[in-house]
Amino acid sequence: MSVENVLKTIKDNAIEWVDFRFVDLSGRAHHISLPAREVDEETFVNGVAFDGSSIAGFRGIEESDMVMMPDPDATFIDPFTAHPTLNIMCNIYTPDGERYERDPRSIAAKAEEYLQASGVGTAAFFAPESEFFIFDDVRYESSMNSSSFYVDSEEAAWNTNRKEEGGNLGFKIKVKGGYVPVAPVDTQQDIRSEMCRLLEEVGLRVERHHHEVATAGQAEINFRFDTLKKTADNLLVYKYIVHNTARQYGKVATFMPKPLFGDNGSGMHVHQSIFDGDTPLFYEKGEYANLSEMALHYIGGILYHAPALLALTNPSTNSFKRLVPGYEAPVNLVFSKGNRSAAIRIPVAAVTPKGCRIEFRTPDSTANPYLAFSAMLLAGLDGIKRKINPVELGYGPMDKNIYELTDEQKAEIRSVPGTLDEALDALKADHEFLLAGDVFTKDFIDNYIELKRSEAKAVSIRIHPHEYSLYFDC
């Protein structure tokens, strides 16, 4: 969309406020709203100023002035505001007009530019399957003398004896028993359908929605693939719609990877492929899973760099509560066709040449999508450049249920890091592939590791309630 068309949209829809948004290192969006009358062509030239020192991981107070530069191709009319509001995603620049090297969205743009300059292909396409929970109630506390969390859902297995319903209505979802049941077991058809309606209204093409495996309201909505940066934009819109629709229904949605102990967590399975114009480059009929040699090398790059990648694709301490065997968690660094126990699955059902892709199942939605998608692309391109063969390195193919292998067989399969600190150690040791084309910088990596180390430390030094069960009577 041109600037002229954006201004026309403001006029035609009687927009009162224009909301300028940017994303921080964690992937959370921030915004500043201007009266629509104050927005004109110069706004798209001069941008909107903000205080970078108030955003974790950005700038110190002595150099805090920063500028949001609106992207006219990333707009939508907000479906939740009482006053008509147009939302515009922005890139971040320094006051002297330089693209800010720590801006996640600019990193995604540089990743796309690097792909095109590499000669490998013209575009990388991404499609995340971002799972979430819809709860009725959430409460948590972490203080000097108290630490707790509590969530509840009318669907939850633990509520078979709840009396607050005025006569328990039954049909609760069993632990690991929530995959695509019909009503009345699935109570959230309408709320998911409303989320989808709003996603379509703001421009995303929804492909399907359904209840997911876990009890207590786990859900998934899939939207159509797009190019790297556009898909990251869409994922932020997706989370915004999901969070606010749940709130309108008097519920709360979370993309936290492991909000419940003892049941499946929420992942973000990322489908990806590379095209040269209209030609798919990952397809070769007759080969394993109809994968081209380029696709195999791309897989090799992701699996080889996976320990470091996880610092960006699974960047929370909670991420590693999900990444444990037995809950469909893709902890095994192998690839396989149609096998959901592998870190990389090759979809084979109803796949056309243009639909041939890989699915990296390890990531979750605590990831900043601009950083995570860019890092995956760079790892894959490094695999293509260095011709990393995943078969020769022992990364598969593994066409078995890995969870059913013997301990001796499992010991031969490399696994993901066990903690955020381990993933950060791996990133510190293995990040040269991210520096290709100056997509990421050494400054960004060092700053990111420092920021995430502080999160890991904040969790590690706090007393866990279960420690009282284990040790109070010592």
TrEMBL record:
Requisite cofactors: Mg(2+)
Pfam families given in the database record: Gln-synt_C (PF00120), Gln-synt_N (PF03951)
Cellular component aspect of the GO annotation: cytoplasm; membrane
Reaction equations catalysed: L-glutamate + NH4(+) + ATP = L-glutamine + ADP + phosphate + H(+)
Binding site for Mg(2+): 129, 131, 212, 220, 269, 359
The keyword Chaperone is assigned to this record: no
Coiled coil (residue ranges): none
Modified residue annotations for O-AMP-tyrosine: 403
Cofactor: record remark: Binds 2 Mg(2+) ions per subunit.
Annotated GS catalytic domain residues: 104-474
Name assigned to this protein: Glutamine synthetase
Native source organism of the sequence: Paenibacillus albilobatus
Origin organism lineage: Bacteria, Bacillati, Bacillota, Bacilli, Bacillales
